[in-house]
Amino acid sequence: MIQVYSEIGKLNKVMLHRPCNELYQINPFNLEEMLFEDTPYLKDAQFEHDSFSKILKDNGVEVVYLKDLFYQAMMREDVRRSFILDFTELSNISSIRLKEKVKNHYTNLDLNDFIDSVFEGLRRDNPYFKKKDSLGEMTYLDDIFIVNPMPNCYFTRDSSVNIADSVIISNMGKQFRRREPLLLKYIHQYSDEFKDNPTINLFDNTLPYGIEGGDIIILSDKVVCIGCTERTSPGAIEYVSMKLFEKGYEAIYAFELERGRNAMHLDGMLTMIDYETFIFNPFLSGSVNVFKISPGREKSIKVISVTDSWEKVLADALNTNAVKLIPCGNGDRIIGNWELWNLGSNVLTIKPGEVVGYDRNDVTLSLLDKEGIKVHTFSGSELSRGRGGARCMSMPMIREKI
Ligand SMILES: NC(=[NH2+])NCCC[C@H](N)C(=O)O
């Protein structure tokens, strides 16, 4: 069951992915394509991730792991066969015969090894590919992988978005993450969690428009903000808006951010932490075009440009007089950008006024403290090397309604 009608309602259930050996497949000479800033040390990354998970459990949140749900979804052989077809199709394997060989290899692996291999990728030096009998195996020998690993899976926020009682299965903007949503598609149909009542996907994944969960902020059961970014396109926002209007949503606010890694997702720039309180990137407000999308006649949509400040936009969206925006790093040009870079504005709200985040963002944390926000912290030295924080590393499944 999915029940997510806000960013702040008490979090009862969440999906995480504990990083595994896929982090050891990060190639230091290929960080940009793999979307990492540096090479995390797996043991410490797992320790940090376990501390994150423990905070959640200690605070009454049920934690489920993406890998377990995926395992359940792959137990049926016919489902696994169909996944293997879809997955190899999307994996950019360099030849037809090599793709066939990869499919055979996956089909013959036992379930645990198969699951690990999906996350870790397949290297050319894998013994199964020792005898080179396809052109694909004899060429491009400087490629390390036949099938790339998926080191970004621990950012469970991005590959899907649970919203209301449904899900948006993402279309990832970056090639390296393109296959992650496929796991979620199968999870929402075939895992024990969902097989009796598969979740409805509000997106059409055949559309050529990118959309990622980090760009979606569920302000209330009536209003959603969506970042229009390098990863989430206007076309996807239009499509999702129409779907949400059918579900009774009344307005979608599109925040157009600079397209690039600086403003990767909206959730690195703005996070809701209490009924009327947000952490935000003070260097952006004012320079961002905001558009209000509302239902038009006969299933069409209306779009107007909104020139107000973020304070005013968010207050209107929440139908209140004023909201409080806490500037990440107190707006200092160095500290502010340092803490934004280290995900100071990317905390996970576990109930109104109570959040979980990295311990490294001292200035933002002390501002939160002054505002009476309760903060639980964990170390993120290794995890932050992937440029994501507690919000990016979690996908809420059930929040209490507020
Ligand atoms: N929702 C987020 N802010 N996610 C951060 C994702 C970081 C990941 N390395 C990427 O570049 O895709």
Automatic annotation (TrEMBL):
It comes from the Bacteria. InterPro entries: Arg_deiminase (IPR003876). GO terms for molecular function: arginine deiminase activity. Gene3D superfamilies: Arginine deiminase, L-arginine/glycine Amidinotransferase, Chain A. The keyword Hydrolase applies. The keyword Transmembrane does not apply. This is arginine deiminase.
